[in-house]
């Protein structure tokens, strides 16, 4: 019996760099598990759509699919869009079993990726010392989602013994520029911004622009197609595949 197919489901973006990054991440997952059927799909704005990918898998003979949402916070897309997409797929294909796993989330080990991206940014900016860090995320109208970013900022702060403020590109204050200016008002000058985004796009670009305008000395790239993210995708898949097994 074939293992369930894995669909890595991202939100999607009009920025082609975003889809290219998701493809690179999915390619990393495939390298780690060449025995699995692994597909990428998007909720909106990018192709292929989730509907298209599900139809292709059903045509290929798969009757079980594990969906891993490539989302960092448990907000509207995770709570509404993903369940709706799964329900629609099961309605279109009676007998198809589709299991959506937990989102990627904000695992403590993702701080390792943040550190890598930050070291790259500091090297490019020729900066050796920091006074403070800003952790820039997308932001949500869901306060619990924003709190998860703030928690990660506190852990990162303890790791580096530096003040770290969570900032948001939309929906919730402070914006990255505000966070940088607040640190500068305290007399701190060497302030860097970490991009807690999965892939490039409008929001991370806007967050970076506001940060630089406010005086940030470096802004890191988004997390990107790091092996640690691929391992987390596969860990989520493993749980979802077990949950599909009849009791």
Radius of gyration: 19 Å
* Distance between the ends: 17 Å
Strand order, main sheet: write it out. 2-1-3-4
| Low-pLDDT stretches | none
Query: Major sheet, described briefly?
Result: 4 strands, parallel
Q: How are the SSEs ordered, and which strands pair?
A:
Layout: E1 5-10, H1 16-32, E2 38-42, H2 50-59, E3 64-69, H3 76-92, E4 97-100, H4 110-125, E5 132-137, H5 143-160, E6 164-168, H6 176-185, E7 191-195, H7 202-214, E8 218-219, H8 227-243
Parallel strand pairs: 1-2, 1-3, 3-4, 5-6, 5-7, 7-8
Helix pairs in contact: 1-8, 6-7
Give your account of this protein's structure:
The chain is α/β, with parallel strands linked by helices and 247 residues long. Helix content is 48%, strand content 16%. The chain contains eight helices and eight strands, in the order E-H-E-H-E-H-E-H-E-H-E-H-E-H-E-H. Strands 2-1-3-4 form a four-stranded parallel sheet, sandwiched between helices. The protein has a four-stranded parallel sheet with strand order 6-5-7-8, sandwiched between helices. It is elongated, with a radius of gyration of 19 Å. It starts with a strand and ends with a helix.
């Amino acid at each position: 019996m074939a293992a369930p197919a894995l669909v890595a489901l991202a939100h999607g973006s009009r920025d082609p760099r975003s889809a290219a990054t998701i493809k690179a991440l999915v390619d990393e997952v495939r390298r780690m598990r060449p025995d699995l059927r692994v597909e990428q799909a998007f909720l909106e704005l990018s192709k292929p759509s989730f509907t298209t990918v599900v139809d292709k898998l059903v045509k290929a003979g798969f009757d079980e699919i594990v969906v891993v949402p490539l989302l960092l916070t448990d907000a509207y897309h995770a709570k509404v869009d993903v369940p709706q997409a799964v329900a629609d797929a099961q309605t279109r294909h009676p007998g198809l079993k589709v299991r959506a796993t937990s989102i990627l989330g904000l695992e403590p080990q993702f701080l390792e990726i943040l550190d890598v991206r930050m070291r790259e940014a500091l090297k490019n900016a020729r900066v050796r010392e920091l006074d403070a860090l800003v952790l820039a995320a997308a932001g949500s109208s869901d306060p619990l989602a924003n709190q998860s970013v703030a928690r990660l900022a506190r852990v990162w702060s303890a790791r580096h013994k530096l003040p770290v403020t969570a900032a948001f590109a939309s929906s919730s204050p402070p914006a990255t520029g505000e966070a940088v200016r607040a640190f500068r008002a305290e007399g701190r000058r060497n302030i860097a911004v970490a991009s807690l985004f999965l892939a490039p796009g409008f929001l991370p670009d806007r967050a970076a622009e506001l940060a630089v305008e406010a005086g940030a000395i470096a802004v890191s790239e988004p997390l990107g197609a790091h092996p640690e993210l691929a391992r987390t995708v596969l860990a989520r898949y493993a749980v979802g595949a077990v949950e599909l097994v009849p009791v």
